[in-house]
Amino acid sequence: MTEDKSGPVPGEARAADVRPAPQADPAPLGLAGFALTTLLLSIINTNLLKETGAIVPVLGLAAFYGGIAQFVAGLFEFRRGNTFGATAFASYGAFWMSYWWIVTHVATAGDVHNAIGLYLLGWGIFTAYMAVAALRTTLAVLGVFVLLTITYILLAIGEFQGGAPPHVWTEVGGWFGIATGLVAWYASAAAVINDSHARTVLPTGPRGPKQAPAVRG
After folding, report:
1. What CA–CA distances, in Å, run from 71 to 31, 62, 135, 187, 199?
2. 48 three-class SS
3. Which string of b and e fits 12-34 if b means at least 16 CB within 10 Å?
4. Nearest-angstrom CA–CA distance, 152 and 157
5. What's the CA gap between 124 and 151, in Å, rounded?
């Protein structure tokens, strides 16, 4: 009489009982880092803040909050399988770190306004196709990408115009940047508050019958 070995292997049974550990949503962090850095720089671009050293706090935010913190949020979105969120946060985190590096070197670089114009235009194109992808997320997130696309285009035009900064196009771009930062802050606040209350306190307007796993807000 042979031993019946058809039952489950103990190791396999234990593996079936394992549940994945819950992961926090990195999107509110990424949105908050983007929002505050964008707001402060945009206020300077509007020429509302005329202090000669006003760029210094922006560079601090660009390196650490808008830069490193947002980039890390993008890495966690990769781990969660969120292609849109990973691409957005990692890219804009890299944008802010590159902005920090450029500004700290531009004083010794000579005339670079056309090159910076191309730099901003490239980011505008990237943001435009991300806005198309954002059509399947929420109205709040879509608003961020649409406003940001306009902001980049206006800032690029301002750089192409040359002359003593800030140019009028840069100032207009600054106002659109302020709007972008405020909407991003709202999306971040909504994600945190709605999650902690386990209900919709701040609506964000989900779009489409099947919402893509995108940046939440």
Report:
1. 11, 11, 23, 18, 28
2. coil
3. eeeeeeeeeeeeebbbbbbbbbb
4. 9
5. 8
* Residue pointed to by tokens 């079936």: 16
Per-residue pLDDT at 162: 82
Sign of CA dihedral 178, 50, 29, 98: positive
Residue whose structure tokens are 């307007």: 205
Output the six-digit token pair for 8: 């489950």
10-residue mean pLDDT profile of the chain (217 residues): values are 51 53 90 98 94 94 98 97 97 98 86 94 98 97 98 96 82 98 98 96 80 46
Omega of the bond leading into 166 within 30 degrees of 0 (cis): yes
Q: Which of 208, 205, 70 minimizes the C-alpha distance to 217? A: 205
- Tallying the residues shown for the chain, one arrives at 217
Is the distance from CB of 136 to CB of 211 less than 8 angstroms?
yes
- Interhelix angle for 168-197 vs 27-45, to 10°? 150
**Nearest to residue 137, comparing CAs of 81, 207, 73?**
207
Contact 204, 190 (CB under 8 A): yes
Q: Are 86 and 72 in contact (CB under 8 A)?
A: no
**CA–CA separation, 29 vs 35, rounded Å?**
10
| Phi, psi for 206 (deg, rounded to 5) | -55, 140
Please state, in angstroms and rounded to a whole number, the distance separating the CA atoms of residues 149 and 70. Answer: 19
